[in-house]
Specification:
Blueprint (H helix, E strand, L loop, with lengths): L3 E4 L12 E6 L2 E6 L7 H16 L20 E7 L4 E7 L1 H7 L8 H23 L3 E9 L12 E12 L6 E9 L10
Antiparallel strand pairs: 1-2, 2-3, 3-6, 4-5, 4-8, 6-7, 7-8
Length: 194
C-alpha cells in the first residue's frame, strides 16, 4: 500500500494550512483545494443544517445531530471523533454512498490507518482548521483511482468532489468531532442528490 502526501502553497488566510493538499491511500489520489465556496445543493444543505443547530448551542454537540433529519444526505455523511489515546481522529460513521464509492468501509479506522501517517497530515489540517476556528471548512477537488488495484473496479477513474467539514463536540462534551459530507459529481446509486 503506497501512502503519501504533499502540500501545495500555503493558503493566504491560513498560513499553517496549504491551499492545495494531496493525499494518497489504497489506490486513490486525492487532490484537495482548501476553503472553497460550496456550490452544490447538498453541501449547502448540510451547512444550513449545522448552522440551525449552532443557533441552539455553541459549539454544536453530537447530541443535537440526528442523521435522520437529513435522510437524503445520510449516504454521503461521515463522523470522525478525536481519540486522545490514539492522538488521531477515528471514523465512527461512514455513509453507504462513501463506502460504495471507495469500495471499502473505513468505519473504526483512524486517519493514519486510512491515509498512512504522512498522508493523514493534509486531512488532519482540514479538521484542525474547522475545530480551531469553529466554522465550516469546505474543500473541493478530484479523487483519482490508480489502475490495477486488486479487488477494485476500474469503472471510475477520476471523480470531482465537494466536501464539508463541520466541528461538533461529542455527546459528553469531552472531545471534538467532525461531521462531514463527501459529495461527488458521480456517487454510485445516489444520483438523485444532484
Amino acid at each position: 500500500m503506497q501512502q503519501s502526501a504533499s502540500l501545495g502553497q500555503c493558503h493566504p488566510c491560513h498560513p499553517c494550512v496549504p491551499a492545495q493538499l494531496v493525499a494518497q491511500d489504497d489506490g486513490w489520489v486525492w487532490t484537495i483545494h482548501m476553503d472553497v465556496a460550496p456550490s452544490g445543493e447538498a453541501p449547502v444543505r448540510l451547512i444550513a443544517y449545522w448552522q440551525a443547530k449552532r443557533a441552539e448551542r455553541v459549539p454544536v454537540s453530537r447530541r443535537q445531530i440526528d442523521p435522520l433529519e437529513v435522510p437524503r444526505l445520510l449516504p454521503q455523511l461521515f463522523i470522525a471523533r478525536f481519540d486522545a489515546s490514539r492522538d488521531d481522529y477515528v471514523y465512527t460513521l461512514i455513509g453507504t454512498g462513501i463506502t460504495r464509492l471507495l469500495e471499502a468501509d473505513r468505519t473504526g479506522a483512524t486517519l493514519a490507518e486510512v491515509y498512512g501517517v504522512e498522508g493523514a497530515g493534509p486531512v488532519r489540517a482540514i479538521y484542525t482548521l474547522a475545530v480551531a476556528e469553529d466554522r465550516p471548512v469546505c474543500t473541493a477537488g478530484t479523487i483519482q483511482r490508480e489502475p490495477g488495484w486488486p479487488g477494485r473496479s476500474d469503472a471510475i477513474r477520476t471523480i470531482g468532489f465537494e466536501a464539508v467539514h463541520l466541528p461538533i463536540r461529542d455527546r459528553d462534551d469531552t472531545a471534538w468531532m467532525i461531521l462531514g459530507g463527501l459529495f461527488t459529481s458521480r456517487m454510485p446509486s445516489e444520483s438523485s442528490l444532484f
